[in-house]
Amino acid sequence: MGFIFSYLKKYIRAITGTMAVKLVGTGMELLIPYVLEHMIDHVVPTKEVRNVLVWGAIMLMLAAIVRFLNVGANRLSVKVARDAAEDIRRDLFHRSLNLSSSQVDKFTLPSIISRMTSDTYNVQNFIQSVQTIGIRAPIMLVGGIFVTLRMDRGLAMILCVTAPIMIAFVVLVSRYGIPLYDTVQKKMDVIVRIMRENITGVRVVKALSREEHEKARFSQANDEAVKSDIRAGITMSLPGPFVSFSLNIGLTAIVWFGAQRVNAGVTEPGVILAFLTYFNMILMGVMGLNRIFMLMSKANASANRIADVVDEEETLSVLPEAEAPRTGEDGYIIFDHVTFRYDPEEGSIKSREKFAGEEREDALSDISFSVKKGGSLGIIGATGSGKSTIVRLLMRFYDPAEGKIFIGGRDVRTYEKDELHRLFGVTLQNDAIFADTIRTNIALGRDISDEEMKTAAKSAQAAEFIANYREGFEHKSEIHGANFSGGQKQRILITRALAARPPILIFDDASSALDYRTDAEVRKAVREEYAGTTEIVIAQRVSSLMGLDEILVLADGKIIGKGTHGELLRTCPEYRDIARSQMGEVG
Amino acid sequence: MARRDSIMTKPKDTRGTLVRVLAYFKSFVGIMAAVFILCIISNVLSLLGPSLAGRAINAAAAGPGKVDLETVKYYAVRMLLCYGASSILAVLISVTMTAVSRHLMRKMRNDVFHKLTRLPVSFFDKNQAGDIISRVSYDIDVIGTCMAADVTQILTSTVTVAGAFFMMVYISVPLAAVVLFTIPVAVLYTTQMRRITQPRFVMRSKNYGIMNGFVEEMMSGQTTIQAYAYEDNVEEQFREINKNAADGYYDAQYHAVTIGPTMGSINNVSLSIIAILGSLLYMYELITLGDISSFVLYSRKFSGPINEIANIINELFSALAAAERVFNLLDEAEETPDKTGAKTFRDIDGNVRMEHVKFGYEKERTVIRDLSFRAEAGKMVAIVGHTGAGKTTIINLLMRFYDADEGFIFIENEEIRDCTRKSVRGAYAMVLQDTWVFNGTIFDNIAYGKENATMEEVVAAAKAAHIHSFIMRLPDGYQTVISEDGGNISKGQKQLLTIARAMLYDARILILDEATSNVDTATEREIQKAMRKLMAGRTCFVIAHRLSTIEYADWILVLDKGDVVEQGTHRSLMANKGYYYRLYNAQFE
After folding, report:
1. pLDDT tens digits along A113-134
2. pLDDT per residue over A72-95, tens digit each?
3. Which of A65, A291, A404, B433 has a beta carbon 3.0–4.6 Å from B514's, enabling a disulfide?
4. Is A421 helix (H, G, I), strand (E, B) or coil?
5. Closest chain A residue to B141 measured between Cα atoms?
6. Is the pTM of this model over 0.80?
7. Under an 8 A CB cutoff, do B492 and A434 touch?
8. Is the ipTM of this structure higher than 0.85?
9. How far apart are the CA of A372 and the nearest CA of chain B, in angstroms?
């Protein structure tokens, strides 16, 4: 709750205003039945039509004012909710976008997205409701009881007994019932999962003729979901009839005791009538309070999830050069005895559960290499051997556990984040293509001339297919580049990496979807057009690497071979095997 | 996003959809009739309450000392009985309706799923998984909620409105006239407001949809954004989108929040007029105090449901629209049934033959013009070509995921369309490029193709696929549960699992679709050895980029732009100096 209030501070005056207006409005609403009682018990006996009309007019006026005030308060509350939610979303988005990679790993992507969407929505809902129902409901309840106490203390006791019972029942059932829906949701997730599995695996299921098996599996999940859904549904259907029944018991009690009190001369018949109306108001108060409690527990959970991200501390802070001194060693890019493991603070128990293979625990160990300015480095190795991790460390998406990394003699930790990243043109694994024009996707906010963009596209062998679109570079990509083939996507990404002529180019598995010929043409063009650029290439294909100055062979996060293609063929048996399996007896 | 927009739209064929929804109720006709009757009884009972209360108050109105307590007690007891019985019935009804609606949902979900198993592969190639799934998770939910809540609500409302109106007229015609005046005002007002708010709510949902889409897209590209220092631009874009979302919300709510207070105010106005008129009538002794109080209670009962009508109609329409989407799915064309008397294969050798096959995914766009080739038992056919050259098309045709437009495909000497799909597909074991594992144990995943596989068989297959030692390092070994997206095992390991699955599935013909491209090169080499063992004596169709694999092939199909442009042995194709020759040499440039 503290998190939400911190955002409401700015709007405290608007909120106070809203609440005050709502207070007055609800208070006046409470007067209406009071007037009714007055008319019947005190005005009617005077037998004056004028008096009846005057008091009737007062009632009508009250009704009009109440509407005016309530609408005003509601609109103010909407405004506050809009502004506060906009603030929260802005801050949350800002923080999410700037999370470090290990923080994203920790929260997981779907969870961050749902915090951004459904959690902010819950909070917004709550902010709006708490200013209106949050005031109205308690006043209805307390005010109703207060007014009835003034009218007839004895009869009011009936309300005082019934109302808490109703509240207690509603709260208890909700508390028991709402978690039931979590169970339902989990079972529904299973249904969705089986559906998804069957859609993505339709060829496998059909090839193996396992349709009947899948039907049975689905049916079982379906049955289980229905069972818990029925249980939750029935539980939550109880409060309604129960509340209306206790209300009606109260009504009967008022009629019964009221009649006795009229007989005893301590109350008037009109009071009974007014009580019946107040009873309805109090009921509305109870239901309103229940709703607020439900919204509050939901909003509270959501607010905590949002706050988790917003308050997440910035890691990877920039160090002054005094703390991270330059290196005297020669070389443009230097890895100096670097060791790294993912998820160090989360505890190894969890990571062991998640990743049974040991390779996850030490993603890189004791990696040292150096690349000259304008030089080139290739990295080859098995899946999970730590190839991409080297890039992630070089670009400081993560910090190494041990060892140091230098670019241009400076420790990477002394670079401002943007300053560091501008050194690179990079294609990453799972790199993003945004739903925007090809031009925007290539430029990504950088100032790139038409000329440069065309040169880059030509070198990446993308110029031809881009030119085939009527709109050329203005052709729009769908979300995740769905309207491009895998090869086209990779060529756009390569264009993006080249376009700004950065000092360092990194290709992480950039050409896996390209055929050998296109791959070779890209390599040739980059070599010619972007000569002098320092290059790091990660690939599974020997042919993509064989022309580079030096090649690292990685296995389980360790360097097991280092040298040119020719040297490695002689010295590194693993490399020789790879080369032979891919290229026959060429080497 | 399109789906979110359509929530508010009305169904195209309201009547037809309604009839089909009602058909689902068929097996519950008896229960529904009972619910209907109980509903009427319950509401009539609760309607009696105010009338009884009025009579009790009349008895009390005589004034101090003159109240007929016996009469008050008589009515009070009856009030209690009526209300009590009515509440019990209400619980009964809502429990029944919950159960009925959930069973209908279950049936619908099963229907949809069974339908999915009968749909051709082309359906899944054309439709987004998310869209199909939303029919089951979202649309059916909407229908179910509507059935459980709205159906009873409509029944209750109808009985209440009719009953309350009858009672009001019965009590006092002049007072009933007041209600006749205020109610139409309320109805007019709500319909008018609906006209104003509806498009704004559509707009609001649309803006939220845009925002959610943007957030999802940007967050999944977060690393790219950081790598190119693109954050400020993205935040700038988000500011605009965020503002639109906020404004859309405000615009819709600005109007929507007036509805509650206005409806309350109309009720209060109605109460005021009743009070004035009632007081006057009371003054001239044309009405009793008890009657006024009953009337006030009835008028509240009367206006409640009328206020709700606009909402319910809205929900009904969106439920019908949801139902229509579900029915559209159920109406999709299914795989053509097997021919009557279709044959099943037994003990095949693995001779496969295509003769003058013509095929296109769409009617007008033929991709394979005229393909003939022969794969003899135990031979290996390699399919090569650029990305997107149509290599999977051949597999689609061989396994009858799609049927050829013209020409014939034979296994042994049987045209495959004369045989059951099950037996055609059963002749193949395959490892596809998109590895598929499901949420279950490793054992189940490997044994998927073979019912009642023993542990020994599974272990043997895993060993052959070089995944056994990895599995044994897992905490629960073969009983380790892997998740759907394979998040807890790597891509390469997933691929090895599907290879093990194919090894266990003892078929005469193998299909390997870039099977090893995700496995690291060292392991791949080992797999190739194991593969060769497996391939021995089996007919194989291999799709691969790696020419070293292809050189082993007995026959090569070379594809370009969807069609087969060359075929032959490695030697003959190289001698040809054609497309294949250029493709092969590109590797060493």
Report:
1. 878 877 888 898 889 888 888 8
2. 999 999 999 999 999 999 999 999
3. B433
4. helix
5. A188
6. no
7. no
8. no
9. 22
